[in-house]
Every structure is written in structure tokens, then in C-alpha cells.
Design brief:
Elements (H helix, E strand, L loop, with lengths): L1 E6 L15 E5 L6 E2 L6 E2 L8 E4 L2 H10 L3 E4 L18
Parallel strand pairs: 1-6
Antiparallel strand pairs: 1-2, 2-5, 3-4
């Protein structure tokens, strides 16, 4: 059983930064998704893919994975880039 640990990204549709400080442990799917013959929806028998655990810090998520023997890969958080722009730059 393997998982990935990452920090929740900022919602692109809103300017708020709620829940951005949380770390997520998400299990990697064990089997491929296949279309349902009746409805055509994609699904699989892997129930671990539905589980997302939230933690306050990266260390807590790593400790949880180590305690339960989960091979976890940590996805690095990309650096925040600010584009400093003045309102007057729209008219140049």
C-alpha cells in the first residue's frame, strides 16, 4: 500500500487561503479504473482511493504513515510566486 503526502493547494477560484496549511495523505490507486457496462461511468473496486486523511503538519502525516507501514512519497510544495503589478500597468 503506497500513498502520497502533499500540502493542500490554494483554491484558484477564490482569493481566500482557508485550509492551505493542511497536509493530505492520499492513497495511490491499486487498480485501474474501468467503465461500467450499464452506465459507462468510470469506477474500480479499490476503496482506498476514496480515502483522504488530513494532518496539521508534514511530520504528523509522516509519523502516521510510518506507524501503519504505509510507503509514503512526499510531494514538494511549489514556491509561491507573487506578480507585483500596479493598476497603471494595465494601460501601458
Amino acid at each position: 500500500m503506497s500513498a502520497r503526502i502533499y500540502q493542500r493547494p490554494k483554491n484558484a477560484m477564490q482569493s481566500g487561503k482557508a485550509l492551505v496549511d493542511q497536509w493530505i495523505l492520499e492513497f495511490v490507486p491499486a487498480e485501474a479504473r474501468k467503465p461500467d457496462p450499464l452506465m459507462g461511468w468510470a469506477g474500480s473496486g479499490d476503496t482506498q482511493a476514496q480515502v483522504q486523511l488530513t494532518f496539521a503538519s508534514k511530520e504528523e502525516a509522516q509519523a502516521y504513515a510510518a506507524k501503519y507501514g504505509i510507503a509514503a512519497r512526499i510531494a514538494a510544495t511549489p514556491p509561491k510566486r507573487l506578480k507585483i503589478q500596479a493598476y497603471a500597468d494595465n494601460f501601458r
